[in-house]
Amino acid sequence: MSTCIEFDNVVAGYKDFMILNNLSFKVPKGSITLLIGPNGAGKSTVLKTLFGLLKPRQGRITLNGEDVTGADPKTLLARGIAFVPQGRNLFGNLSVYENLELGGITLGMKTTHERMPEVLEFFPRVKERLHSRAASLSGGEQKQLEIGRALLLRPKVLLIDEPSIGLSPMVVQDVFKLLQRLAAQGTTVLMVEQNVKSALKISDDAIALESGQLVLHKPAAQLLADPNIERLFLGGGHVPGAAVPEPAAQTP
């Protein structure tokens, strides 16, 4: 498959503290790629840097072969990148409908209203609560609304950080199925997820980071089949000779 996202020796961080240290990797078009690693490895920083919330100090970022290094979020939205950050990022006192309208503000109201029905088809429960305050939705419904708001943009690339936090196992599976469906339709998904084993099952590739550097990039199915996966990802120590660090359950 052709390359959608490429980091080439990217250095990024906060003030004098660098999180990403000459990080390089490629993400194929139409794939689901999972970022894994311990606390402080740089997983969420990758998403923020790609979305323009953090400017790289060095290196180059390309999207479908075009240089987008240092581009701001508005420019990247126009290029087809959408970001669903960790936690809740809704206007709680506004209705579900109004939150969707705000998500499509760059599209104009006419286009936003035209696209709403196709987005709501993914989320029947959210559709039922269209005129309820966003704060009154369950955690799972709120996360679905956030994803739906991003989908209004018909993104070519979806960045999603810890989609399972606070959700029931059933809702998590629904979200994962949606990501698979989007990828099958050509959307490139780059994800950070604490539930590593479940996320590997729906991912095409896995990228492991440690101290802001790449330590492993291989097909998710191969990593899932690794007999050391319990120790590698669920609290065990670093396996001698293994390229994967011990991830913690939380994201930086």
Helix-strand blueprint:
Layout: E1 3-14, E2 17-28, E3 32-36, H1 43-50, E4 58-63, E5 66-67, H2 73-78, E6 81-84, H3 96-103, H4 109-120, H5 124-128, H6 139-151, E7 157-161, H7 169-184, E8 188-192, H8 196-202, E9 205-210, E10 213-219, H9 220-224, H10 229-233
Parallel strand pairs: 3-8, 3-9, 6-7, 7-8
Antiparallel strand pairs: 1-2, 1-4, 4-5, 9-10
Helix pairs in contact: 3-6
Give a quick rundown of the structure.
34% of the residues lie in helices and 25% in strands. The chain has 10 helices and 10 strands. Strands 6-7-8-3-9-10 form a 6-stranded mixed β-sheet, sandwiched between helices.
What are the main properties of this structure?
about 250 residues, six-stranded mixed beta sheet, four-stranded antiparallel beta sheet, disordered C terminus
Elements, N to C (H/E): EEEHEEHEHHHHEHEHEEHH
**Residues in helix, %:** 25-40%
The main β sheet shows up as: 6 strands, mixed
Mean pLDDT value = 88
H/I helix tally: 10
Proportion in β-strands: 25-35%
Number of E-state strands: 10
The span between the termini is: 31 Å
Strand order of the largest sheet: 6-7-8-3-9-10
Kindly name the structural category. alpha/beta
